[in-house]
Amino acid sequence: MSHYIGRFAPSPSGPLHFGSLVAALGSYFQARAMNGEWLVRIEDLDPPREMPGAADLILKTLEAYGLHWDRTVWYQSHRHQAYQGQIDAWLAQGQAYFCRCTRKQIRASGGYYNGACRHRHLTPQPGYAVRLQVDTPITHFYDEKHGKIEIPLALAQEDFIIKRRDGLFAYNLAVVLDDIDQGITQVVRGADLIEPTGRQISLYQQLGHPPVSYLHLPLAVDHSGHKLSKQNHAPAIDRHNPRPTLIQAMAFLGFELPVDIEAAELSEIVAWGCQNWHIHQLPETFEITR
Ligand code: GLU
Q1: Cα(55)–Cα(137) distance, integer angstroms
Q2: What separation in Å is there between the alpha carbon of 9 and the centre of ligand 1?
Q3: Motif 'KMSKS' region: which ranges (predicted)?
């Protein structure tokens, strides 16, 4: 079997909260259980949504929780050349095209993009997005925990955006190019990212690269069913007293911690987690209220 390389890829829109700790821990335990590497990538792709200082705070918090990464941290803000290079190559091959359709127009034509600009041969203009022509829609994929996951055909067929109207690179493109260039073999992340997985697999296909495997972890939601996030004021996790939150997050991932482990040093709890991690103990559900 080839060498395992996993990753945790937070967006620095705010400090780490419980939901992002779950994703960090799940990807860490899985990588260590596979004797693999665990990389950290800061997805600072969308400056208006970022909080100054959040990236450093996230890294300090990971260290405080005993989650030590391999190699150097990557920042998506340093990768623009790679993203633009790929977009230019696809534009030159006619695999990608400029699109001037507004969200309102797309809503009016049924909610999914109907390829209206595919044959318009538009030249670049401020306010135009770039879309990738999807020739072979990905209508399902296999998740390591959940098995076959279906993707609605209308979504799978859509020519999706690889560069946004505001000039920012699209998340799906950046994630896939980075995962390839970092040699990632498996993506472990929250179940909120199941939906874009089809698009990401479609990017691998267009790039002629075998896709990674995927493992989606249960998502922590609040009592009204919303994902814990900065937008709905999920509190930052405590960096100075990590043990209680670490134990709660491990219980969330299906661990039953022995009493002596709960009382042990933080590094021992994490090491115990690496040794006792099994995908089958993960809850079956996609969401858990917290
Ligand atoms: N940056 C994304 C987020 O924080 C995660 C991307 C991924 O794991 O693929 O939601």
Answers
A1: 35
A2: 5
A3: 227-231
